[in-house]
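Dear Dr. H.,

I hope your travels went smoothly. While you were away I took the liberty of generating a structure for the chain from your last submission, since the lab meeting agenda had it listed for discussion. I wanted you to have the full record in hand beforehand rather than looking at slides cold. The sequence, exactly as received, is reproduced here:
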Amino acid sequence: MISDRVVRLKSDYAAHGLRTCVEAVLLVELFKHPHVLLLQYRNSIFKLPGGRLRPGESDIEGLKRKLASKLSVNENVLVPGLEVGECIGMWWKPNFETLMYPFLPPNVKHPKECLKLFLGRLALHQQFVVPKNFKLLAVPLCQIHENEKTYGPIISQIPKLLSKFSFNMMEI
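The corresponding predicted structure, in token form, is as follows:
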């Protein structure tokens, strides 16, 4: 029997084509070490803030909209001081299964979903409103690194994606 989720995904794909999701990697400095802000759901599911784009919506505008709806006091007002930086990674879903690949397999001509990670830059002093059933956590990069069991295959690769950057911890 096909799950309701798969039926919905197939219906959405037939109507709109490739589903594109965008998520923000938001870094903060704690104890002179970079941490990633993650949303925790049900004490065991970790997510980056973001979500699905509307048909025809640009990556940057869609990510700003999703961050406003997830982290801002007023979902119609963008998170003040937030800058969306470069895309640091893309994952592809070749079919309606849950498995995503950090590359588009060569035999796949019509992927079903694309997930893009963007580096987000926050204002020096940032305040957030967290959705009702979530917790906002600052998790050290060293804890996330290759910890797929806890954080999943995408979040656990963030330290590798960030390895091309130099971080300067500033005393303020």
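Two observations you may find useful: Helices lie at 4-16, 59-71, 141-144, 148-155, 158-161. The chain is about 25% helix and 30% strand.

With kind regards,
E. W.
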